[in-house]
Automatic annotation (TrEMBL):
Residue ranges of domain Aldehyde dehydrogenase in the record: 36-493
Record-stated family: Belongs to the aldehyde dehydrogenase family.
SUPFAM superfamilies: ALDH-like (SSF53720)
UniProt enzyme class: oxidoreductase
Gene3D superfamilies with a match to the protein in the record: Aldehyde Dehydrogenase, Chain A, domain 1, Aldehyde Dehydrogenase, Chain A, domain 2
Any Pfam family: Aldedh
Lineage, top ranks: Bacteria, Pseudomonadati, Bacteroidota, Cytophagia, Cytophagales
Entry EC number(s): 1.2.1.3
Name assigned to this protein: aldehyde dehydrogenase (NAD(+))
Length: 512
């Protein structure tokens, strides 16, 4: 059937011309510039959204502050009930939202659906969590005393998200923050404003239906200037930001300057070590999806393969042959494996990285390049490519958000691990091996220095149940599952004296 953009937008409650500043189901109607959303799939304009002005931002913050005073008092399991309903609404809109993600961002429809599934999963997780925001009870050293800790909501949480996961990353933050009793103000990527409007509609409608005021789910539209409103604002207790290391350093500095809290989810430079004991069928499949899935635009994308000398030639041949079977084209057509990059700037970065690999002495194994002609009119479709390199090349040390894969040879296991760790970033990592000693070494304190370390799986595609994030220039934040919720709450330690005495801690005597 033919893909109808207008009907799709309608299903998600969006128009071709949209207000950009929302406090829930209501918008702030002030003048602002316009942001145009263009699809990398066909280069066509999808719609326009108004940019949030400083004045509009102030009005949003007033509502958010007011809403927090109410929302924080709603019992956590009741907050979970609202999130449960958002999960149901997302299930109903899964196909439509997945399609818009695919069309506005350029990832395959399958991956668009997968992204919405991550949102549904995190809703379920958050609902369970809403009855498990546990603190500990301690034994006091003093007689007649009781000690315990409790977790209170933080306040206003600012969420800055990237184009590559335009909807899932918002949900990792907001669903958890909402059950924790926070209110959220979201600044999505200026490259994917329409998917954010769709999410805003879905969540706001549920809050509204449940009788909650405006201000719990807010949306701002704009670029880094609008993100800076959140970073600078002492009313924003936590800024959770996903994107480039450059963006993260600037947000981290500004928020740190006012001693606010940050949760940073920045670049990766993820490697798979393929040992002599790897199951090569699994290794090739894992490496391939890791490197070319989402056109190499995941922070968890596989950028480097560190391959044992003894299997190097075989891996190389099988990889080159697998690359030759990749089909590039319209991501909404399920026959295609790879869609476009997000925009022509991304294509420029890809081309300049290829130039730099060559200049530094990299050997081209699978040729890159931009596709043109029928179906590629947007100018955003590029060929996934493979180079033989050395880890110290400057370009290899950086994250290029494109399908460029680097192959590196090793002999000793220690050498492979130090190569894998030998980059400024520390997000995801993997080892392909059937050997228990190798695998355990890789996962040990001497092994991977990343926030994510997998065995016999690629570097991307983490499940929501784990804490997601990484070390070093990746920023140190953890989102999503496990106890990542603690970042969205403040811990209070309480000591209660139920005796008629007043013994001091540490046995200190103070008598009069
Ligand atoms: C990102 O690229 O910012 O682990 C997030 C993965 C996805 C999330 C990636 N679940 O690849």
């Amino acid at each position: 059937e033919k893909f109808e953009v207008k009907a799709l937008l309608e299903q998600l409650g969006i128009n071709e011309v949209n207000k950009g500043t929302w406090t829930g189901v209501e918008y702030i109607d002030l003048k602002g510039e316009w942001l145009v959303s263009k699809s990398p799939v066909d280069g066509k304009e999808i719609g326009k959204v108004q940019v949030t002005s400083r004045e509009a931002y102030e009005l949003v913050m007033e509502k958010a502050e007011k809403a927090f005073k109410v929302w924080r008092k709603v019992p956590a399991p009741q907050r979970g009930e609202v999130v449960r309903q958002i999960g149901i609404a997302l299930r109903e809109k899964k196909e439509a939202l997945g399609k818009l993600v695919s069309y506005e961002m350029g990832k395959s429809y399958q991956e668009g659906l997968g992204e919405v599934q991550e949102m549904i999963d995190i809703c379920d997780f958050a609902v369970g969590l809403s009855r498990q925001l546990y603190g500990l009870a301690m034994h006091s050293e003093r007689p007649g005393h009781r000690m315990y800790e409790q977790w209170h909501p933080l306040g206003i949480v600012g969420v800055i998200s990237a184009f590559n996961f335009p909807v899932a990353v918002w949900s990792w933050n907001t669903m958890i923050a909402w059950v924790c009793g926070d209110v959220c103000v979201w600044k999505p990527s200026e490259k994917t404003p329409l998917t954010s409007l769709a999410c805003q509609n879905i969540a706001a409608e549920v809050f509204n239906k449940n009788g909650f005021s405006e201000g719990i789910s807010c949306l701002l539209i704009g670029d880094a200037n609008v993100g800076a409103f959140l970073a600078q604002d002492p009313r924003v207790a936590l800024v959770s930001a996903t994107g480039s290391t450059r963006m993260g350093k600037s947000v981290g500095e500004v928020v740190g300057g006012r001693l606010g809290r940050v949760l940073l989810e920045l670049g990766g430079n993820n490697a798979i070590i393929i040992t002599e004991n790897a199951d090569l069928d699994v290794a090739i499949r894992g490496a391939l999806f890791g490197a070319v899935g989402t056109a190499g635009q995941r922070c968890t994308s596989t950028r480097r393969l560190i391959i044992h000398d003894s299997v190097y030639e075989e891996v190389k041949e099988r990889l080159v042959s697998a690359y030759s079977k990749l089909v590039i084209g319209d991501p909404l057509n399920e026959k295609n494996h790879i869609g476009p990059l997000i925009d022509v700037d991304a294509v420029d970065n890809y081309l300049s990285a290829i130039e730099r690999v060559k200049a530094e002495g990299g050997k081209e194994l699978v040729e890159g390049g931009v596709l043109n002609g029928e179906g590629f009119e947007s100018g955003c479709y590029v060929k996934p490519c493979v180079f033989e390199v050395e880890n110290h090349f400057q370009v290899v040390q950086q994250e290029t958000f494109a399908p460029i894969l680097y192959l590196i040879k090793y002999n000793e296991l220690e050498e492979a691990v130090s190569c894998q760790n030998g980059v400024p970033q520390g997000l995801s990592s993997a080892m392909m091996t059937m050997n228990m000693r190798e695998a355990e070494y890789f996962l040990s304190v001497e092994g991977s220095d990343c926030g994510i370390a997998n065995v016999n799986i690629g570097t991307s595609g983490a499940e929501i149940g784990g804490a997601f994030g990484g070390e070093k220039e990746t920023g140190g934040g953890r989102e999503s599952g496990s106890d990542a919720w603690k970042a969205y709450m403040r811990r209070q330690t309480n000591t209660i004296n139920y005796s008629a005495e007043l013994p001091l801690a540490q046995g200190i005597k103070f008598d009069i």
